[in-house]
Write a structure and sequence with these properties.
By secondary structure, this protein is α+β, with helices and mostly antiparallel strands. The chain folds into 2 domains: about 160 residues, Butyryl-CoA Dehydrogenase, subunit A, domain 2; about 300 residues, Butyryl-CoA Dehydrogenase, subunit A, domain 3, CATH 1.20.140. Helix content is about 55%, strand content about 10%. The protein is built from 23 helices and 13 strands. Strands 1, 2, 3, 5, 6 and 9 form a 6-stranded mixed sheet that branches. It has a 3-stranded antiparallel sheet with strand order 4-8-7, with no helix packed on it. Helix 9 packs across helix 16. The longest helix has about 35 residues. The radius of gyration is 27 Å and the shape is globular. It starts with 7 loop residues before the first helix and ends with a helix. Flavin-adenine dinucleotide binds next to strand 1 and helix 12.
Length: about 675
Amino acid sequence: MEAGGAGEVDHLAGERATAQFDVDHMKVAWAGSRHAVDVADRMARLVASDPVFRKDNRTMLPRKELFKDTLRKAAHAWKRIVELRLTEEEANLLRLYVDQPGYVDLHWGMFVPAIKGQGTEEQQKKWLPLAYKFQIIGCYAQTELGHGSNVQGLETTATFDPKTDEFVMHSPTLTSSKWWPGGLGKASTHAVVYARLITEGKDYGIHGFIVQLRSLEDHSPLPGVTLGDIGGKFGSGAYNSMDNGVLRFDHVRIPRDQMLMRLSQVTKEGKYVHSNVPKQLLYGTMVFVRQTIVADASKALSRATCIAVRYSAMRKQFGPQTGGPETQVLNYKTQQSRLFPLLASAYAFRFVGEWLKWLYTDVTHKLEAKDFSTLQEAHACTAGLKAVTTSATADGIEECRKLCGGHGYLNSSGLPELFATYVPACTYEGDNVVLLLQVARILMKTVSQLASGKQPVGTMAYMGNVQYLMQCKCGVNTAEDWLSPAAIREVFEARALRMAVNCAQNINRAPSQEEGLYELSPDLLEVAVAHIQLIIVTKFIEKVEQDIPGEGVKEQLRNLCNVYALYLVHKHLGDFLSTGCMTARQGALANQQLGKLYAQLRPNAVALVDAFNYTDHYLGSVLGRYDGNVYPALYDEAWKDPLNDSPVPDGYREHLRPLLKQQLKLSRL
Ligand SMILES: CCCCCCCCCCCCCCCCCCCCCCCC(=O)SCCNC(=O)CCNC(=O)[C@H](O)C(C)(C)COP(=O)(O)OP(=O)(O)OC[C@H]1O[C@@H](n2cnc3c(N)ncnc32)[C@H](O)[C@@H]1OP(=O)(O)O
Ligand SMILES: Cc1cc2nc3c(=O)[nH]c(=O)nc-3n(C[C@H](O)[C@H](O)[C@H](O)COP(=O)(O)OP(=O)(O)OC[C@H]3O[C@@H](n4cnc5c(N)ncnc54)[C@H](O)[C@@H]3O)c2cc1C
């Protein structure tokens, strides 16, 4: 079929011709290195060219078929990984481009890291080779029906029996049933189970245990183990490919050496021994995953913005009153003011994710050397950035759906499934509100220590500049003044610090610290968000200050950085004004500058999303096609729906025909 006569293919080519920068170099800036671009490109094409990895029919598959398809894809991916001797980097990219949540995510993302982080050397030697070769499949069984956020409230017990040198795993109540772990329902043979350790009659709190759940012969649940899937989830396709599971134990015995004993041990005699390390290291796997979730946020948001930008560039509605061609919807200022901040956010999250990965690696090295001084920083940054980036990404994907008008609501746009798959990221690995309150508590502690002269470090170092930041005045006089990184940084620092100090003062007025924290928790959330946004803005500014090769690349990144920062100023103007960080006039100038930045971004928009280098397979959207040839694709896609298998639908004879015949009789009356 011919395109609808609007010349869409040429349209995107024209868009690409207006770019004022070298897209190839922007791909490098986005991916991190030339090597990263090449590997990602190779893996994306490998997946796209393999019929087993087809996913265009996914939202139409019934759950059982979808799950079987996930098993097939995972097994095929593994076969290719082994046959092609892919490196870990390549294998992980392959997993990314297969783009179907499944047990492998939890096996590699949580089961293996939990054993690495919490297992002794012997335990690692025993279990990791089995996991690396997929001779066992593992998951991370922490959350229960009754408790998820409150980890210390978990009820599953692991009671040591010195007579047999075993732990007895038991689910004493309905609410102690493990509930949610991915891969648990149908695929896993093993789990790292978090349970209350009881020995010598004393409850020592939550610890991790490796427990075999299913037979390695026929995959049936072992005696005393009840297992199942917890049921269908939000959306079609989407996270329904994952077997989130339920697990109950009825006095299941495991050898003592299956307690993960790196942080604490139980001796043969039943003595509990805690190594001289912070107990929060038990939460290390969550910290690791939160860091990967921040990196994933930029992937999901960049996918959505890529679809919305390309579609908005080809879609036309209305036109000048004087006549002439219709207007590309991307030219509407409202479309730009909704879409460009999301595009800028995708870049911002990419760079802060890169920095967070560095921080995580640095903290891990320090922990290995028994230096625990940066544990709090790692917790605050991973928890806060996870919360802020996932919330903004989930909202952003939904905004992109609306930006694509009616067609955005079709499954073939890719946006409904992307949203449904993505949105649980706001809940899993820590509910975003719960995580932001953790950050806020750390900020309150830091403020309370300022008076004693203790200098905050890391991302909180700016709080040490309290004398200046509490009274400084924003020096912006013209819209262009807002292009100064120093001016931007200062207002974000002043806003974050003043909000934190105000909140701390209000808490101090409460009858007790606990009551204050409780009453002011809505304000605390905003304090945490302001601090985390400061980190994202700062890391973006630092990125732009680096040496970035490629014609025009640095300029585009600077533009995106300014869009991101000034969009936040506009969105949170109330914070900036109420804390006296800027005047209403300066707020208006920021908005004026933002409009100018959008106009500069406009000719580069399509090229900026091309720099993500996504294949049409990975995007999975007829609206986001690289060639912009949207209408024929939309039209063809509709005919693939099973509802169109026959011109007359199933059910006609039973339900439509009698009705229509009856109406006929009535009309004859
Ligand atoms: C196809 C084949 C391919 C093969 C490919 C092969 C290659 C593979 C490559 C690798 C692939 C990688 C893939 C990754 C993909 C990952 C996908 C993941 C999908 C998501 C799954 C989701 C899983 C889950 O959801 S798991 C469950 C998560 N649960 C939670 O997050 C619970 C949230 N609750 C908590 O974290 C806590 O309970 C908390 C913090 C809210 C409260 O805890 P607690 O009551 O103990 O503490 P407090 O009293 O509040 O605080 C005490 C003290 O501790 C400090 N603190 C708290 N937490 C931490 C921490 N984490 N770290 C450090 N410190 C912490 C806190 O600040 C307090 O400090 P004080 O100084 O005492 O004040
Ligand atoms: C798709 C998906 C996959 C998952 N995979 C796994 C997995 O592999 N392994 C695993 O162990 N778990 C998994 N989980 C569970 C997940 O980690 C928990 O659901 C998550 O940590 C939130 O906990 P909750 O369900 O107990 O929420 P709740 O804590 O019950 O939250 C309910 C509401 O209460 C609020 N709230 C709770 N506490 C506070 C507080 N202190 N102050 C203010 N408000 C509060 C929350 O903000 C929220 O609005 C998964 C969940 C999902 C959705």
